[in-house]
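W.,

You were right to be curious about this one. When I first looked at the sequence I had no strong expectations either way, so I just let the prediction run and decided to look at it fresh. Below is the sequence, 457 residues in total, followed by the output.
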Amino acid sequence: MSHKELIQDAAENHTGHRATTLDHPVRVDEEKPASEQRIVDFSDNAEAYFDRERWRAVGDDVKRYPDKQSRGYLRAAGLSPFSVAILAVVALVAGIAGVLAINILPSVRFFPPSTYRKPGFRSIPVQWIGYHQTAAFSVGISRGSCFCADASKRLFIGYDRQVSVFSSQGIRLGTFPVSGFPQAILLSEKDSLFQGRFLVAFQDHIEVYTLNDDLTAVLVARWKPFEGSPNISSLALGPDALYVGDAGGKVVYKCAANGNILKRIGSPPSESRLPFSRNRFSDKDSPDESEERDNLFPGFVILAVPSLSVSVSPETGLLYAANPGRHRVEAFTRDGVWEPSLSWGDSSSAGFVGFCGCCNPTGIQVLPDGSILTVEKSINRIKIYKPNGKLDTVVAGSETLDRLPQGIVERGRRDIQRNLLPGASQSPVLVSPQGDQVFVFDPVFQLVRVFDRIAER
């Protein structure tokens, strides 16, 4: 008896019908004994391999349910519907990762963890230090989430359902309640759009308060929640509008005094207009298409930390926004037009001159002279750049910020991550309106640090 006849015999004895009951041929390996044969079934250009012990289930499915032959193939391969679903999810994730790798990661440079552990990596040459710590005072607030100051250098710290006010010497002046956990706060000037009112941003909406001389607050307006899945992380007041950084929606809203949205700034262009939706690797674009592509804002990249910090230049009125996933500071006109020539930053250096890590800077603030203060997490650093993006000076590095100042007694356990950015919130670092002092709220040591500019470097 030939090998083929032996295989057909084995199939008949095991299933009760001949292998030829399949409507398509089978392939038999003539060089192997019958006991080691695997029947290979071809149908619609798809292969299914199944062992002799699986033949009954597969054969019955194929014979009884001709329209469900694919189910038989899956069972032959040992795959359940659940396994197929898992594979589909894995394929989807792999596809998304591929898109990110092609369109985002080329602009983001990651360094291995060993890089950050090198001796001296966290240190900053002394000639670059332009500020020194002159004071530090305890505030007893461990969950502070936002920070602002007024012209008289009163410091406002927002935390669990309240805002506390301190003098620049650390004296608590008062506390007033708010309706939730604040994520960004702003005290407007009396001659500004909001006429001296106090603005509090929560995760999805903004409330406006009148702040009395005795530091009591009265709610006067509650804006409706922003659309989508908002996570407000920053507020900045311009001459004619309020700018709201929404890390959840990855967009900046330009809002009127009544809460109406005037403009969405920083939204990525529709897929039909993205360069890679045509042919990412083509160099045959027309001049008009090339110019349009270059002027399209690629969007904000928000990765590990949900922070989108915004600030308005008092000199030019330009809006600046941190783009942490791209290691950049983006510039926009008042109307939300992206200015690529005025935007800057990259991840080309793991040193202190550039930005490193997954997502930095986490916070920015424009100084009165147009310089830009930046805040970085993980390797805690506060730096000041010139408007063109060239590093001007360093306020403080991790060697200073990671240590308890002399004369301050540590309270409680340090079980909060050593990070300037406590969760999903605005970076608790601000510059005095005069630009001569930098205040840093430290949620780990529960204190406010004060840095003064060094007169001569």
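Here's what jumped out at me. The first helix runs from residue 3 to 15. And, maybe more interesting for your project: The chain is about 15% helix and 30% strand.

Coffee later to discuss?

I.
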